[in-house]
Every structure is written in C-alpha cells, then in structure tokens.
Specification:
Blueprint: H1 7-30, H2 37-50, E1 54-55, E2 67-71, E3 74-76, E4 90-99, E5 102-111, H3 117-135, H4 143-156, E6 160-161, E7 167-169, E8 176-180, E9 197-200, E10 203-205, E11 211-213, E12 220-222, E13 228-230, E14 233-238, E15 241-244
Antiparallel strand pairs: 1-4, 2-4, 3-12, 4-5, 6-10, 7-8, 7-9, 9-14, 10-13, 11-12, 14-15
Helix pairs in contact: 1-2, 3-4
C-alpha cells in the first residue's frame, strides 16, 4: 500500500532530509586520497547523533554501519573499510537518517582527485539522469515516466541502468511502496499523486547492467568490473511539482 503524506508530514520529512543533505555535503568535502571509508562512516555516525537523529541504515537488516561506501566497481551497499582511497577512485556514499519519526535518504558519487574522462562522464550522466527522472515526478503522471526518463538519458550516453536494485517510497519506514525502477515504459505504472514521497536513485554501470552480491551478503559489484555511479534524492510529489527534500 502506498502511504500518502500530509503537508505537515512532508515538512517533518524535510527536517530529516535536511540532516541527510548537510552530512553528505560535509562528507563530500572530506573525500580525498588517503582517507578511509571507515573514517567517513565514523564521521557520519557522529554527526548524525550530534543532531539528535539516528543513522537509518545501522542495524537495518543487520547492516553494521551508518554509511554505505561503494568504491569503483561496487554498485551499492559497500561496507566501510580501512583501505585508503586513492587518486582516480570514485566513491558512492549512500546515507539516511531517522529523525522525529521520519526517514530521509540520499546518495552521491564523488571523484577522488582526477578521474579518467569516461568515468567523469559516467558520474555526470548518472546525476543528470536523476534530475531527468525527478522532472517526471509530477501529479497525474505515471510512475514509470520517471523510470523511462532515467533509462533513456543513461543509455543515450552508452551506459546501463542496474535492474536488480531500484528506488522506493519512503516515510515512517525506510522502504515503502512503490518500488521505483530506473527502467521501464513511459505511461505505465501507478498514477502519481500529491503526498507520495519517493527515493529516486539511479544506479548506473559503465558497461553491462549485470551485478553480483558478494559473500558478505551486502557488497554488490558489477559483474564485468566496470565502474558504477549512484545518485539519489528524496522527492515529494506536490500539486506544484516535485519537491526535492534532500537538495544539497
């Protein structure tokens, strides 16, 4: 069942999402060669609690950390490690909080120093596809209008959208209905209504869309070793258009 949020509930979600955005911005400034993702995770956890919020992912289905850190060919759900980042890496940071009964969730992919031109294009295309999808998050439209906009933008630039993981509704639960795929036919899917709040999150691979989950049960990598990028916003659908609650 899709749970519609009242304007008051959306404002409560905005407060949670503001914390997510603030901390992701601080994390982005800390990404540089020599930093470890374990250090980033510790920082995110500390900053969350300093704001009287709770890390959304920590303990969720027994996930042990506040932050998902996915470098290079890791698509999603990478666990923080003590391995230093190095020049030419990319790192996807997926982060959420629970604050005042509501969740916020967002992600971004950051280059570590200079990266090859194709990888820079991958990041740019993925972020652009997120906003292409958000532009279609309008009342009266169809859910897969969002999906189609993401897919067509990505594939036009020679990349592929991941099929095995999708976006989702969000609110009092981290994952709510509906699922929001990053591929699909325009004009299909449920009708979009004011009060829906969606986590729209393109996961885009440099090469094939095929992925595999490692033995830890979390870390998901590209099957062909290509790099992968991930951008995400929490977006409320309103009578006035899409409202990006996690805008950085």
């Amino acid at each position: 069942m899709i749970v519609l949020k009242s304007p008051r509930e959306i404002e409560k979600m905005r407060a949670a999402c503001k914390i997510v955005a603030e901390i992701l911005l601080l994390l982005r400034e800390r990404v540089k060669p020599g930093v470890t993702t374990a250090e980033l995770d510790e920082f995110a956890d500390s900053e969350t609690r300093r704001r009287n919020a709770k890390p959304a992912f920590k303990g969720y289905c027994k996930y042990p950390n506040a932050l998902c850190c996915s470098p290079n060919d890791v698509v999603v759900h990478g666990m923080p490690t003590k391995i230093p980042l190095k020049e030419g890496d990319i790192i996807s940071l997926d982060f959420g909080v629970l604050y005042n009964e509501f969740y916020g969730d967002a992600a971004l992919t950051i280059p570590v120093g200079a990266v090859p031109a194709r990888i820079a294009t991958l990041l740019k295309a993925t972020e652009e596809s997120l906003y292409a999808g958000i532009d279609k998050a309008v009342a009266g439209g169809r859910l897969h209008d969002i999906s189609h906009a993401v897919q067509t933008h990505v594939e036009a630039q020679g990349f592929s959208v991941v099929r095995d993981f999708v976006g989702h509704g969000i609110g009092r639960k981290l994952h709510e209905e509906p699922q929001v795929p990053n591929f699909g036919a325009a004009g299909t899917g449920v009708r979009l209504k004011p009060g829906m709040v969606l986590a729209i999150e393109p996961m885009v691979n440099e090469k094939s869309y095929e992925v595999e989950v490692l033995e830890d049960g979390w870390t998901t990598i590209t099957r062909d070793g290509g790099f992968s990028a991930h951008f995400e916003h929490t977006v409320a659908i309103t009578d006035k258009g899409p409202d990006i609650l996690t805008r950085i």
